[in-house]
Amino acid sequence: MSTFNAPRGTYDLLPPDSATYLAVREAMAAPLRRSGYGYVETPGFESVELFARGVGESTDIVTKEMYTLTTRGGDELALRPEGTASVLRAALEANLHRGGNLPVKLWYSGSYYRYERPQKGRYRHFSQVGAEAIGAEDPTLDAELIVLAYDAYRSLGLSGFRLLLNSLGDRTCRPGYRSVLQEFLRGLDLDEQTRARIEINPLRVLDDKRESVQRQLAGAPMMRDHLCEECKAFHEEVRALLTDAGVPFEDDPRLVRGLDYYTRTTFEFVHDGLGSQSAIGGGGRYDGLAEMIGGPQLPSVGWALGVDRTVLALEAEGVDLALPAVTEVYAVPLGEEARRRLFHLVTELRREGVAADLAYGGKGMKNAMKSANRSGARFALLLGERDLAEGVVQLKDLASGEQTALELAAAVAGVRDKLR
Ligand code: AMP
């Protein structure tokens, strides 16, 4: 114990569990790397205004959940609550969209911060892997991203998740739907805060999780019945491409998501083993966002997958990832000269790509063997005075107990042979 604890709503990633997080991030990134997405990294904080304009002034994220600060120089900054606005800001700033090579395809991985009420699966600091395809209005791109997310989850061995799909329309058809929806909502029995939301962002009311609200929404008008011909055709094409790629989905006409920038395609991956915080990833098309943050019109689509919740989903399904061994060989020196020789050997093994570790701190044989067993290594390398005199080192199989003497001078090759 120390005097300090991790801040409320946060937790530390420690070995051995941290290896699972690395593997999940890697599994999410691998399909992107194979699909023309380049890695992007942006600062952990941005101007508050970027998120206010980008994510939406009326969203919970902006009104309640941002960690904001004023710098000594007077700048208003916020720890990033999500990735899309930052990535688009970076792409515009560097003019990646100029030169005609569209879409610009980017992926990222990092920490995000939201001042939320902590519970299982909902943290104030969490980790996402995200992808954005900027500057193309093409349903194939929407389908590509959804397929890549689906493949990432499947490659981890997950199966208990569902893909929810919807279209939110565009600037042609959404305004009309918005009015129809507002009219319907104004006739309901709702609290003051929700009534205010009807005027600012009525679609968000559909997302209200409270039973009392959901009950009244039974007959609400749905965007899908108000889509213009172009949005309808676009959405049908996304659906057809997904079906063709073998990606099952459920049409969810109520899916609106918590960020204001979405247009047309919106989707969420939910896992049925996670309780209330079931969304393991989500995204959609955001054709208006570039303009909202002062750029040109750049129709784009993207997603963010939650690393923390994906790890919880693996636990819920009892999936054990086949992680590479942390340590394959554990060296146990007995005496000063043996320590030097084994340190040399361990260094050589590591340079040859073998995961090797050594008993440090002058441990006795018994303690050192305990550490060897705890390390998960397949073999221990034992070196004592008699071995030194004979020019050998003992390679002990920690599972069977079987021991073989290897010539010390040729030990690297000998160990590699045995590992093979
Ligand atoms: P969002 O942009 O809010 O849809 O977030 C994308 C994904 O990030 C979600 O589907 C979650 O898996 C994850 N996520 C969002 N907020 C949190 C949080 N507070 N704690 C843990 N994971 C989160």
**CATH T-level fold name of the largest domain:** BirA Bifunctional Protein, domain 2
Bound molecules: adenosine monophosphate
Number of strands: 16
Give the N-terminus to C-terminus distance in angstroms: 42 Å
CATH architecture field of the largest domain: 2-Layer Sandwich
Tally of discrete structural domains: 2
CATH superfamily of the largest domain: Bira Bifunctional Protein, Domain 2
User: How would you write the strand order of the largest sheet?
Assistant: 1-5-6-11-10-9-7-8
Number of contiguous helices: 16
CATH structural class of the largest domain: Alpha Beta
GO molecular function, one term: ATP binding
Subcellular location: Cytoplasm
InterPro entries: aa-tRNA-synth_II (IPR006195), aa-tRNA-synth_II/BPL/LPL (IPR045864), Anticodon-bd (IPR004154), Anticodon-bd_dom_sf (IPR036621), His-tRNA-ligase (IPR015807), HisRS-like_core (IPR041715), HisRS/HisZ (IPR004516), HisRS_anticodon (IPR033656)
EC number: 6.1.1.21
